[in-house]
Amino acid sequence: MKIRVLYENSNILAIDKPSGVLVHPDKTNKEKTILDWAVKKYPNAVLVHRLDKETSGVILIAKNNESHEFLKKQFQNREVNKIYHAIVSGYVSKDHEIINKPIGRSPRDFRRHLSGRGARGQMREAITEYKVLKRLISGKEKYTYLEVRPKTGRTHQIRVHMKYINHPVVCDSLYNPEGLCPRGISRLALHAKSIEFKNLMGEIIKVESPLPKEFSAVGGSASSGKKMVE
After folding, report:
1. How far is CA 118 from CA 102, 107, 176, in A?
2. Catalytic machinery residues
3. Which pLDDT tens digit goes with each residue over 190-222?
């Protein structure tokens, strides 16, 4: 497994996770994971947070228990700033919005989470801020390119909140199974673009992951309201 290292010191590692790679072992899947890769290089490595299998981008790994506890507290205190890029179905009408809607479980599919009507189980606070970068057209379909800043860290949070506002992430087989993918994109259109945190020296570190080629092509090929693909 080839993994690009984006930042590293004696305590913390930030890597560029490819889409399609599991972060941690799954009982139903015996694929090699990011954790397997990390532990092979650093036996005491611990995951600090997670990304969904099909999500790409920057992820933090602690090399020891001390740095794990240090980073975990920053996540718990909401001191870590994360920025994602996403392509969602339809034209999002508001240029900027904060979605403050608790997330629970779907009553129909144990794999899915849900905001709003019908959600079951414990409802956990979830806050997601987004702004529109571009509105795009591919053929007859409309899409919106977003910058997304999750303020909390719930499972599938961005995917659930985008579904809640009726603009699910494109190519999302779980939350948007019948949606069309823009030409040139065949993976979940969600990318962890950057993360900002403090290292153990108290320095503020911002690590950025380069946009995948699919995102670069979409984001760089059209201005607001223009066609993405002729």
Report:
1. 12, 7, 17
2. 52
3. 999 999 999 999 999 999 999 998 887 776 544
